[in-house]
Design brief:
By secondary structure, the chain is mostly helical. The chain has 2 domains: about 25-40 and about 155-225, Helix-hairpin-Helix base-excision DNA repair enzymes (C-terminal) (Endonuclease Iii, domain 2, Orthogonal Bundle); about 50-150, Orthogonal Bundle (Endonuclease III, domain 1). The protein is about 50% helix and about 0% strand. It has 10 helices and no strands. It has helices at about 25-35, 50-60, 65-80, 80-95, 105-120, 130-135, 140-150, 160-170, 175-185, 195-205. α2 (about 50-60) runs antiparallel to α7 and α4 packs antiparallel against α5. The radius of gyration is 19 Å and the shape is globular. The relative contact order is 0.16. It binds iron/sulfur cluster. Iron/sulfur cluster (SF4) binds near residues 168, 207, 218, 221 and 224.
Length: about 240
C-alpha cells in the first residue's frame, strides 16, 4: 500500500518553525511586497481616540480583535473618557466585556488604568513608553501599539502573528518577541517601519496562518525562505 505523504509541521505559537535569516535586500523586498498590496493599512480594533485605543488593546490580549469589537462600542458609549471609566469601576465594566477571555482581570486593569490616567496624567494617555508601561495591564506590546497608532511613532509591536511570521519566513528569526522586535526594527526600511507593524500582523492573521500558511496566495512568496511552503489550497 502506498503510504500517504506526511503533513509538514508548521510549528506552534511559542515554538514556530524558523527559516534562515533573509539577507537585508531580500527582507526589504518582502516588506515592500506587502506594502504594495495594502498601501494604507490600519488597525482592525474599533477606537475613537488614544484612550479608547489603549483600552481596546488591553482587552485584546489573548483574544481576537473581532471579539473585542463586539463589546467595545457599548462600553465606550457608557464610558468614553478615563474619568467615566474610572467611575464605572471593575464591577461596572465587567458586564460589557464578559464575552472575551480573561474578562475579570481585564475589567480590573481597565478600571485601574483609567484611575491612574485621571490621577497621574491629567486624564490623558501619555505618549512615552515608560509612563505607558507603568499603567496596569500595559506591557511592551500594548505600549508599542499605542505609540505607533495614536502617537505616530515607529514602533513594532510583536504579537503572536508577527512572532510566527518573523521566524517562519526568515525575516527576523528570534527566540523571544523582543528579539524578533529588535531585528524587525533594524531590518525594516525606516520609511516603512510605522506601517510594517500592520502589514505583518494582517499578513500573519489572514495569509501566513498559524495552522498552515496559505503560500499559494502570498504576495511576498518570492522572497520567503520557508522550506515547507503550501503551494495549493487543501482539496475539499
Ligand atoms: S510564502 Fe508562505 S510561509 Fe512564506 S510568508 Fe508567504 S504565506 Fe508565509
Amino acid at each position: 500500500m502506498p503510504t500517504k505523504p506526511k503533513k509538514p509541521n508548521h510549528g506552534t505559537a511559542t515554538a514556530p518553525r524558523r527559516a534562515r535569516l533573509m539577507p537585508p535586500a531580500q527582507a526589504e523586498a518582502f516588506i515592500r511586497a506587502l506594502a504594495v498590496a495594502n498601501p494604507a493599512p490600519e488597525t482592525e480594533l474599533i477606537y475613537h481616540d488614544p484612550f479608547t485605543l489603549l483600552v481596546a488593546v488591553v482587552l485584546s490580549a489573548q483574544t481576537t480583535d473581532a471579539a473585542v469589537n463586539k463589546c467595545t462600542p457599548a462600553l465606550f458609549a457608557a464610558a468614553p473618557t478615563p474619568e467615566r471609566m474610572a467611575a464605572l469601576g471593575a464591577e461596572g465594566i465587567g458586564p460589557y466585556i464578559r464575552t472575551i477571555g480573561l474578562w475579570q482581570g481585564k475589567a480590573r486593569n481597565v478600571a485601574a488604568l483609567a484611575r491612574d490616567l485621571v490621577e497621574k496624567h491629567g486624564g490623558q494617555v501619555p505618549g512615552d513608553r515608560e509612563a505607558l508601561e507603568a499603567l496596569p495591564g500595559v506591557g511592551r506590546k500594548t505600549a508599542n501599539v499605542v505609540l505607533n497608532v495614536a502617537f505616530g511613532q515607529e514602533t513594532m509591536a510583536v504579537d503572536t502573528h508577527i512572532f510566527r511570521l518573523g521566524n517562519r519566513c526568515g525575516l527576523a528569526p528570534g527566540k523571544t518577541p523582543r528579539e524578533v522586535e529588535e531585528k524587525l526594527v533594524k531590518r525594516c526600511p525606516p520609511e516603512l517601519l510605522r506601517d510594517a507593524h500592520h502589514w505583518l500582523i494582517l499578513h500573519g492573521r489572514y495569509v501566513c496562518k498559524a495552522r498552515a500558511p496559505e503560500c499559494w496566495r502570498c504576495v511576498a512568496r518570492a522572497y520567503c525562505n520557508y522550506n515547507d511552503k503550501v503551494l495549493a489550497p487543501p482539496v475539499k
